[in-house]
């Protein structure tokens, strides 16, 4: 939780030495890196070396295999890992403090040279930890809940996607035109002529007309 992860850019000081642990038979490679700061001297107009940091780097398992096959003395490298101090006593009984790094990743500094990468084919797990990691990677991934489609709500109207897309794609000029102009662009509808009334015969008119009665003289 409170680990100090640091990136160090420097050069390899010692050739990598590898060994295997007695109990778990894990492969580990150790070497030293020197990182020297450089500053520009304005008086002499040249770059000069500043403070230097020397640290012991340890790489485990697959990373150790890559270090042994790829790293040599003088190579410019970039190392990233957990930095800590190790206290110990020398042969004379003096207390010593050393800075060490448990590397998570190591590679060549391509700003100062070129390198060719060769992918290694894994024939089998080197340790029990690697076997557990491969088992976890091989398991089927769980389906995230956020990607599932929810059930439709009863009574909810479906959105009109065509109107939404049309509103996003129309230009401001088209959006500012009045609605009357759109109505003018429409094709005029043909007016229907009213049907002519059918002619009524005079006989029918006479039949329906009431006769007028004249008054009779007394």
From TrEMBL:
Keyword field: DNA-binding
Domain of life where this protein originates: Bacteria
Taxonomic lineage of the native organism: Bacteria, Bacillati, Actinomycetota, Actinomycetes, Micromonosporales
Chain spans, region Disordered: 139-218
The name this protein goes by in its record: Single-stranded DNA-binding protein
Gene3D superfamilies reported for this sequence: Nucleic acid-binding proteins
Pfam families in alphabetical order: SSB
Biological process, per Gene Ontology: DNA replication
Extent of Acidic residues compositional bias: 171-195
Example of a GO MF term: single-stranded DNA binding
UniProt xrefs under InterPro entries: NA-bd_OB-fold (IPR012340), Primosome_PriB/ssb (IPR000424)
């Amino acid at each position: 939780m409170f680990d100090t992860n640091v990136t160090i850019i420097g050069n390899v000081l010692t050739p990598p030495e590898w060994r295997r642990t007695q109990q778990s038979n894990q492969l580990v490679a150790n070497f030293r890196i020197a990182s020297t700061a450089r500053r520009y001297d304005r008086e002499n107009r040249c770059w000069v070396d500043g403070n230097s940091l020397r640290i012991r780097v340890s790489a485990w398992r697959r990373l150790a295999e890559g270090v042994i096959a790829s790293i040599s003395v003088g190579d410019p490298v970039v190392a990233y890992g957990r930095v800590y101090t190790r206290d110990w006593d020398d042969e004379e009984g003096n207390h010593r403090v050393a800075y060490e790094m448990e590397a998570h990743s190591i590679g060549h500094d391509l700003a100062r040279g070129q390198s060719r990468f060769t992918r290694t084919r894994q024939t089998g797990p080197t340790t029990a930890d690697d076997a557990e990691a491969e088992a976890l990677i091989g398991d089927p991934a769980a389906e995230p809940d956020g990607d599932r489609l929810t059930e439709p709500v009863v009574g909810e109207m479906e959105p009109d996607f065509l109107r939404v897309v049309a509103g996003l794609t129309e230009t401001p000029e088209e959006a500012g035109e009045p609605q009357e102009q759109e109505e003018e662009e429409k094709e005029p509808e043909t007016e229907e002529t009213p049907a002519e009334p059918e002619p009524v015969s005079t006989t029918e008119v006479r039949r329906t007309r009431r006769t007028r009665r004249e008054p009779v003289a007394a």
